[in-house]
Amino acid sequence: MSVCIIYHSETGNTRIVAEQVAAATGGDLIEVKDLAGYSKVGMYLKGAPRAMRRELAAIEPAAIDVSGYDAVVVGTPVWAGNPTPAVNAAVAALKGIEGKAAVVFCTSGGAPRKALDTMTAMLADRGADVRGAVALTAREVRKPEAVESLVGLVRPLAAPSYGST
Q1: How confident is the model at residue 37 (pLDDT cuts 50, 70, 90)?
Q2: What is the Cα gyration radius of the chain?
Q3: What pLDDT sits at residue 1?
Q4: What is the reported pLDDT for 159?
Q5: CA–CA separation, 123 vs 133, rounded Å?
Q6: What pTM, to 2 d.p., does this model score?
Q7: Taking the domains of the chain in order of start, what are their residue ranges?
């Protein structure tokens, strides 16, 4: 089975987690870039209000075809308790997500608040079968034992299914 790990990262924390999941599962990485190009201050002054309104960013890649994968992982930083506008757009841009197993994760400086619930609902609305959600703090992203809870959810989805025809 194959896994696609889709993520947006501005400061690098979400990227670190996505890379660890890919290394542990053999998954493919797709980094979503927000074409707004926020500065650190801009993330808070412009990005956070857009996240609270659940706006969609202009992103690259503009379309993400996951039809060739068995499972999808989606990761986001938490901005004002929400997924980033880039991740909102990435979920909207998914092609072939219907019926796929999915796992969501977020990275944050503190509590994730409703970010995981929002991502779970967005993917479920697109027809995905969300199997789990993990929140990691900025301190935990560099600790393999903390990321293992996420890898533990994804690894069974990436395991080859023997005996299937």
Answers
A1: confident
A2: 15
A3: 63
A4: 65
A5: 12
A6: 0.93
A7: 3-158
| pLDDT for position 162 | 46
CATH numeric code, 3-158? 3.40.50.360
Separation CA 28–CA 35 (nearest Å):
22
Angle between helices 13-25 and 144-158 (to 10 degrees): 50
User: Which residues are CB-neighbours of 159 under 8 A, at least 6 positions away?
Assistant: 1
Tens digit of pLDDT for each residue in 93-134?
A: 999 999 999 999 999 988 788 999 999 999 999 999 999 999
Partners of residue 72 on adjacent β-strands: 4, 102
Residue 120 carries which side chain, given as an amino acid letter? T
Residue that has been written with the tokens 């990435």 in this structure: 90
User: Please, which residues have CB within 8 angstroms of residue 57's CB and are 6 or more apart in sequence?
Assistant: 34, 35, 36, 50, 84, 85, 86, 88, 89
> Is the distance from CB of 160 to CB of 131 less than 8 angstroms?
no
Token match 């400061």: residue? 11
Quick one: the chain helix, strand, coil %, rounded to 5? 40, 25, 35
| pLDDT at residue 25 greater than cutoff 50 | yes
